[in-house]
Design brief:
This protein is an alpha/beta fold. It has 19 helices and 11 strands. A 7-stranded mixed sheet has the order 3-2-1-4-5-6-7, with helices on both faces. A two-stranded antiparallel sheet has the order 8-9. Helix 8 crosses helix 11 and helix 9 packs antiparallel against helix 10. The longest helix has 34 residues. It binds 6-phosphogluconic acid. The site of 6-phosphogluconic acid (6PG) has 13 residues, from helix 8 and helix 11.
């Protein structure tokens, strides 16, 4: 008997995906560069389903039914290229290589084009949900050809998370679309985490609350419109006591946030596409600032304001909840705009509502809120920004006084809230009838004759700044 699908690369993510497939009744070929991992998978979890262990790539390929479905789960970059080169020569036209790692979408586009030349399908697939999701139901974002999705989709949908019976998996679009969407997912993840962290910081330092009390606040928020996996785990982390010292766990962790690169990619690509994802950018920069230990040590005695406390803790909690919700709407609005811009740039025809649908479960940013986003894009697929959807417009309208109070209090107390404040600046920037960009245009024209457009006439103009200051056509 042959396997319906194979997984090569059996570190924890690959192993868990293979187990998930086997638990759903699919025979899975399994292979790892060093065969110890293959053996231990079968020894420990062989009872969960049908595994066909292979010692060599040749054996692995021979054990797969056709068209072959080969899932590779190895480190992004050179290791992925090496594994592709190992397996592609053994495959036949119509077979599929699925890259389920966190690859850069530009690499995925390159690999897809190269393998297409060789008659093979290459399916760059975003998988979110960490180890636990891979085992019990992740959110899956496959790119690649429509044809490959027909052969692969049913298997992937089967092992994905389900919300109201709907799988958290759909064909995102051709070539690199799946990895692009996964990248933006991670960018939104960074920004959501940063906003939650700022909410905690405000409650702690402007509210004078202890981590355990703040955990209770997050638990309560998690029963409302902020209900999400990230809020839920934040409460868990804040409630945790360090066993060694008996102090709050969060106080015992070095305050330098690390990153593996997907958030940075999101911002780099957003800069190229010209999409202002300021919330994601501030989240990446906040992690980066936190990591500059020597710089922070040099600056730690710089003067700040005298500490201020909020007048009422209850009112602060309510204000912060609203500020968090409004900022979160902005962060998602920016991320979805980046998906739309990428889709337009690369002709992917991505349905934003479908992305919100597959993010409702399984992934790190899963949240009740995504149902609202889905509804917004179902009502208007070409919505210019989530902020103008009726539901979100009303939510921000109700939240904005609180939002402004929170940003003001933070500035007055010297508490850094780059996420909250950039979100508010973005909102006010979009709303503005007139932006000082007009003055920037004047400055550019003054020093570099870069020209400007006028509000009252078509064309491009230049003022003779060094001469008689008359205007000429630019
Ligand atoms: C997921 C996660 C996963 C991982 C990221 C974040 O969707 O399951 O996003 O991909 O946790 O790589 O990693 P960093 O915070 O280390 O960049």
């Amino acid at each position: 008997d042959r396997a319906q699908i194979g997984v090569t690369g059996l570190a924890v993510m690959g192993r868990n995906l293979a187990r998930n497939l086997a638990r759903h009744g699919h025979a899975v070929a399994v292979h790892n560069r060093s065969s110890g991992r293959t053996r231990s998978l079968v020894e420990q979890f062989g009872h969960e389903g049908t595994f066909l262990p292979a010692e060599t790539p040749e054996q692995f390929v021979a054990s797969l039914e056709r068209p072959r479905r080969v899932v590779i789960m190895v480190k992004a970059g050179a290791p992925t290229d090496a594994v592709i080169e190992e397996f592609a020569p053994l495959l036949e036209p119509g077979d599929m290589i699925v890259d389920a790692g966190n690859a850069h979408f530009a690499d995925t586009r390159r690999r897809e084009a190269a393998l297409r030349e060789r008659g093979l399908h290459f399916v760059g697939t975003g998988v979110s949900g960490g180890e636990e999701g891979a085992l019990n139901g992740p959110s899956i974002m496959p790119g690649g050809s429509r044809e490959s999705y027909e052969a692969l989709g049913p298997l992937l949908e089967d092992i994905s998370a389900k919300v109201d019976g709907t799988p958290c998996c759909t064909h995102v679009g051709p070539d690199g679309a799946g990895h692009f969407v996964k990248m933006v997912h991670n960018g939104i993840e960074y920004s959501d985490m940063q906003l939650i962290a700022e909410a905690y910081d405000l409650l702690r330092h402007a509210g004078g609350m202890e981590p355990a009390q703040i955990a209770e606040v997050f638990r309560k928020w998690n029963t409302g419109r902020l209900e999400s996996y990230l809020i839920e785990i934040t409460a868990e982390v804040l409630a945790h006591t360090d066993p060694a010292t008996g102090r709050p766990f969060v106080d015992m962790v070095v305050d330098q946030a690390e990153q593996k690169g997907t958030g940075r990619w999101t911002v780099q690509i957003a800069l190229d596409l010209g999409v202002p994802v300021s919330g994601i950018a501030e989240a990446v920069f906040a992690r980066s600032l936190s990591g500059h230990a020597a710089l922070r040590a040099a600056a730690r005695d710089l003067p700040g304001p005298s500490p201020r406390r909020a007048d009422s803790v209850d009112a602060l909690v309510e204000d912060v909840e609203r500020a968090l919700y409004a900022s979160k709407i902005v962060a998602y609005a920016q991320g979805f705009n980046q998906i739309q811009a990428g889709s337009a740039e690369y002709d992917w025809n991505i349905d934003p509502g479908a992305m919100a649908t597959i993010w409702r479960g399984g992934c790190i940013i899963r949240a009740a809120f995504l149902d609202r986003i889905r509804a917004a894009y179902d009502a208007d697929r070409n919505l210019p920004t989530l902020l103008v959807d009726d539901h979100f417009r009303d939510a921000v309208a109700t939240a904005q006084d609180s939002w402004r109070r929170v940003v003001t209090l933070a500035a007055q107390s010297g508490i850094p809230v780059p996420g909250f404040s950039t979100a508010l600046a973005y909102y006010d920037g979009l709303r503005a009838r007139r932006l000082p960009a007009a003055l920037v245009q004047g400055q550019r024209d003054f020093f570099g004759a870069h020209t400007y457009r006028r509000v009252d006439r078509d064309g491009s103009f230049h003022t003779l700044w060094a001469g008689d200051r008359s205007e000429v056509n630019g």
